[in-house]
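Duplicate of earlier report; Adenosine kinase input re-posted below.
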Amino acid sequence: MSTASPNSLFGMGNPLLDISAVVDKDFLDKYTLKPNDQILAEDKHKALFEELVKKFKVEYHAGGATQNSIKIAQWMIQEPHKVGTFFGCIGKDKFGEILKHKAEEAHVDAHYYEQDEEPTGTCAACITGDNRSLVANLAAANCYKKDKHLDLEENWKLVEKAKVCYIAGFFLTVSLESILKVAKHAAENNKLFCLNLSAPFICQFFKDNLMQVMPYVDVLFGNETEAAAFAKEQDFETNDVKEIAKKAQALPKVNTKRQRIVVLTQGKDDTVMAMGDKIETFPVLKIDPKNIVDTNGAGDAFVGGKIFLCCHLIRF
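Output:
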């Protein structure tokens, strides 16, 4: 039994229905996909989702980066149920109903903004070997509105109940104003605000949005490719992951009661953490490749484990 109370963990992001399949290199090449990358769907990817379903054996999962992490944290907490709260936008359709059902199954207190202009978002997870290439069609997830959901009294009360807030960087493309409202609330009330770099394109093409939020970030997550992109855009002039972690930690911060923690994963290589005045590394347990199903959601699960700890160790 966890000591965490209901709604003490808050997440906001892009709820997506994952369509997952093992594909071949020709399929990746056809749609100019990289083996271990995350992109937003463009016009050239319109046929991808249909071809994936027709050509390969697919599995459907309730997904989206933030929702995945909240679900994992809740799974680790077990009881009480609904420690994890999640906000996001879905369509009034079959996929939206599936997502609501899956959130309920996972004991997550999901409060979706439902609209009928766009269908529920999807994400193609194209798996090759140990890698996965993600192509997200945000659709409804892109329609989240601060004034129509986050600002509502009954919803904002759930944010006020939270002690830990987590948002994946993907949401920077959707509602910067919503992120900033939550981030400022966290800083003003000395709550833990966590952000994930999420993908290289976030660091590159949404740099301005990212850097508006960065001063409020208490815990920053990322992987080695995202760290490299972030370092390049910030003119850190280094490719060393440890140095990148230290430089990211030293960026300006609003809530000076908490020194920023930076956690950067590197696949099978050591995870790097900048905490206090130390840079620590943590070896990753070796796994027989035969036991690896795929790596889709691995980073989200890692973060879920970390924010689970945050719910127990609020001073983290």
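The domain at 9-15+64-119+138-312 is CATH 3.40.1190.20 (UDP-N-acetylmuramoyl-L-alanine:D-glutamate ligase).

Merging into the original ticket.
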